[in-house]
Structure of Indoleamine 2,3-dioxygenase 2-like:
Amino acid sequence: MAAVDPDFKTSFCLDSYYVSDELGFILPEPLVELPPYYQPWMDVAVRVPDLVQSHELRSHIYKMPLLSSEFLQKHRELRLAHLALSVMTMGYVWQEGEKGTVEILPRNLAVPYWEVSQRLGFPPIFTHADGVLANWKKKDPQGPFDMENLELLVSLPGGDSVRGFFMVTLLVELAAVPALRSIPTVINGVRCGETEAVARALEVISQSIQDMTDTLKLMQGSRPYHICFMINSNFLKWKDNSSMPKGLIYEGVQAEPMEFSGGSAAQSSLLHCFDELLGVKHEEKSGAFLTRMRNYMPPAHKKLIQDISLQPSLRSFVQQQANEQLNQAFHLCVTKLLALRNYHINVVSRFITVPAARARQIRNQSQDLQCETISRAPIALEERGTGGSGIMIFLKTVRDKTKDAFLLEKSKDVNSETAQQFNNST
C-alpha cells in the first residue's frame, strides 16, 4: 500500500457538484410547466417545429410580451425557462435556413434570455445542458427510464429522428452514472494508496464506458438527413459561422453582436471527467476548444472537472504500483474510452459528414427535392461541427491523443491490436 497523501484532509465526494446518485449529470425530474405568468413562452416553445415549418415562428415571437425573469425562483424553473427561450431563439434565427438568418434577436426574447442565462451561469444559446440534460419527461412516471417511456419537453424540426437523437444522447449520459459514482473511489484510493479499491473502481468505470458505447449504437435507427438538419442547422452557432459573420445582437442587452458556439457533444461533462481522471492530454488546438466548451456546462459540473484535474495523478499512481490487477484495470479503462471515441467518429460520419455532402450534391444538381429539410442543410457542415470545430479532424485528433494515456509498456500492444480498427474509421 502506498503512503497516504497528507495534503488532502477530507474525502473527495460529489455532493457539492449537483451530480445525482441515480441520474448523474442529468437534471432530475425537470419541470414541464412554468408559472402561469410565463405561459406566452411555453405556448410558442412547444410549437417551434410546426411554426418553423410554416415560416410563422418569427411573427409569433414578435407578438410575445416582454416578461421579467424575476418570478423564476427555483433552479428547475430557470432550467425550463432557458430551454424554452433557447429553442425559440434557435428557431427564430434559423427559420429560413442559412441564407435567411437575422442579425438581431428581438428585445422581448433577448432580454429575458440574457437574464435567465446570467442567473444560471449559462451562455444565451442552446446547449447540451438544455437539449439533453433538462429536456425529458417520462410518459409513465412509474415506468422505466428507456426510449419507449421517454419524451421531449420541447423539440426542434426533424420529427421522430430528432427525438431519437436527444433520447439516445440522454441514455448515454445515464449509462455513465456508475462511472461517475466511482470517480471519488478512485481519487480517494489514490490519495490513500488503496490499490485494490482503485482497481475495482476502474473496472466499474470500464464497464460503464462500454455501456455508453452500446447505448450510442441505438442511434443507428435514426434518419441521417433529419439529424443532419437538426443538429447542424438549428444548432448552428453564431461563432465562426459564415452565415452570421458578425454574430448576433441581443437587443436590449448590448449594441454589439455576440458570438457563441452551438450545442455539441463536447459540452457533455462526461468525457472531460474521464480525460482528467485518466490523464488524457489534448494538443493545444483541440484542448483549447474542449476547454472553451466547459463554459457551456452547468457551473457546478465545470467545477467538478477542474477539481478532478487537481487531484494526484492516477496514471502516475498506477505506474508506481507493482500490481497487475491495477495495470490491467487502467489499461481497460483507456481501451474502452478509445473505443467509445472511435465509434463516435463513425456516428458523426454517418449523421453529419455524409448527409451534409449528399445534401450539397443534391442542391448543386438542382434536383427536385422531396424534403425541404435537405435543401436547407447547411453547406458548411462538411467541415464544421455543431460547436464550431473542424469536426472530423478534431475527433480523430482527440481519439489519437487518448492513446497516449496508455502506460508505456502497453503502447505497442495497443497500436498493433487496434490499428485496423482506427484505419477503418478514417
